[in-house]
Design goal:
Largest sheet: 4 strands, antiparallel
Strand order of the largest sheet: 2-10-7-8
Radius of gyration: 24 Å
Distance between the termini: 12 Å
Number of strands: 23
Helix content: 25-40%
CATH topology of the largest domain: Adenine-n6-DNA-methyltransferase TaqI, Chain A, domain 2
Length: 404
């Protein structure tokens, strides 16, 4: 079935480009959040990794528009063609540069359908140069405004949007659950091992700055950094780039992964922790927990990762430690190199002291948090399956091959 192609601006109440210059941000958290192109990906808009601005800047940058629930956002550049549904009720969010803002006319266009139409092979092909001439690294404002999209009757749009959004709503719900589970694990780590309010702390003396029975150890005594893993030449191996890591949670984005027959020297197994060693990724706290590999499988990643593997502590303890401010600050202080491209030095943790708790306390901690990490792994796998199913169904629905 072939549907007519209609310019998207004819179907929208609003189709405008954002203010095309960089908004001045602040280092502290405010009510006013700026979405950048990196926040828009795969149909979602991530409001956990935003920049903050003052109220005055917010007012200036929203003079054209500000997003609301049911709007759709498109990246015009860096990267081209990413799409996100705005599913938040937060009214204090605005769009940074290189983002295009659509607000469908509900009498003509279903907002979920628009988001999936923009992600369809037919429309994505135009972003790759099939519709705009030569391959492009950006979409012009006029092209984004007049972009032709498939236009079935509204009732069909609504059915298609409902089917596909059901997948994404489940994925988004899983993401929220993952964040809560990880937050619970990290809060327990902080309570026990940073604030030292562990079970029985009321009756434990502090000796030389640590609870009695604990040991002061240098980090390399407790954690192996960049452990060596060998793979046969030509072996197919998963590769995770720096973009696969989040700044706010442990989930590693497998949509960014690829299969290679040549491996980098940075190799890891399940239970290892990936720690960014380059600015600005380190300063933003990019850290990942590997839990997506088969039992004996080895994967590789960006050479800008440090691999952390616990020697006498569990992967859960290692991950929570790597997420602490103190651990990250120790790495940042060792950075050298040209501005904007500084790297952590290999021996940055040689003098970093870890207060190693008693074995019984480490075991108790693992008993509490291990089920949380297990549940996170299950939710990640479920979301990956939902994403694959949605991606298989989307082009069939958009082409009319599968009817609803």
């Amino acid at each position: 079935m072939s549907w007519p192609l209609i310019p998207v601006c004819d179907l929208c109440e609003l189709a405008v480009d954002c203010v095309n210059k960089t908004a001045p941000t602040v280092e502290y958290e405010t009510e006013f959040k700026m979405i950048r192109t990196t926040n828009v990906k795969g149909g979602f808009i991530d409001l956990n990794e935003v920049r903050y601005v003052t109220e005055d800047v917010f007012k200036k940058w929203t003079r054209r528009s500000k997003p609301r629930y049911g709007d759709v956002v498109l990246t015009r550049e860096a990267p081209v063609g990413e799409v996100g549904r705005f599913t938040s009720e937060d009214e204090k969010v605005f769009l940074g540069q290189r983002l295009f803002h659509y607000r469908p006319n509900p009498q003509k266009l279903d907002w979920n359908f628009l988001a999936y139409a923009l992600q369809s092979p037919q429309v994505q092909g135009k972003f790759k140069g099939m519709g705009f001439g030569a391959t492009v690294d950006h979409v012009r404002v006029g092209d984004a405004e007049k972009l032709p999209i498939p236009y079935p009757p509204l009732s069909i749009q609504q059915r298609i949007g409902s089917v596909l959004s059901a997948y994404d709503d489940l994925i988004e719900n899983n993401r929220r659950r993952i964040q809560l589970l990880e937050q619970a694990a990290r809060l327990l780590y902080k309570e026990w091992f940073v604030h030292l309010r562990f079970p029985g702390h009321e009756h434990t003396k502090i000796v030389d700055g640590v609870p009695e029975g604990w040991e002061k150890k240098y980090a390399p005594e407790v954690i192996a950094f960049n452990p060596i893993e060998k793979v046969k030449k030509g072996t197919s191996i998963k590769y995770i780039p720096m973009s696969g890591l989040s700044t706010t949670n442990m989930t590693i984005d497998l949509c960014d992964s690829e299969i290679r027959t040549t491996s980098t020297s940075v190799r890891f197994r399940n239970g290892d922790v990936l720690f960014a060693r380059i600015t600005p990724c380190l300063e933003n706290g990019k850290t990942g927990f590997v839990n997506f590999l088969a039992a004996d499988e080895i994967a590789c990643g960006s050479t800008e990762f440090l691999i952390l593997r616990g020697r006498f502590v569990s992967p859960f303890f290692t991950y929570c430690l790597a997420r602490t401010h103190e651990f990250r600050e120790s790495a940042i202080k060792s950075m050298t190199g040209s501005s904007g491209r500084q790297r952590v030095q290999p021996g940055c943790f040689d003098e970093f002291v870890i207060a190693l708790p008693k074995t019984i306390l480490l075991q108790q901690f693992d008993e509490y948090v291990s089920p949380l990490f297990t549940q996170i792994g299950l939710l990640v796998r479920e979301s990956n399956q939902l994403s694959k199913a949605r991606d298989l169904l989307l082009p069939k629905l958009m082409s009319g091959e599968v009817s609803v």
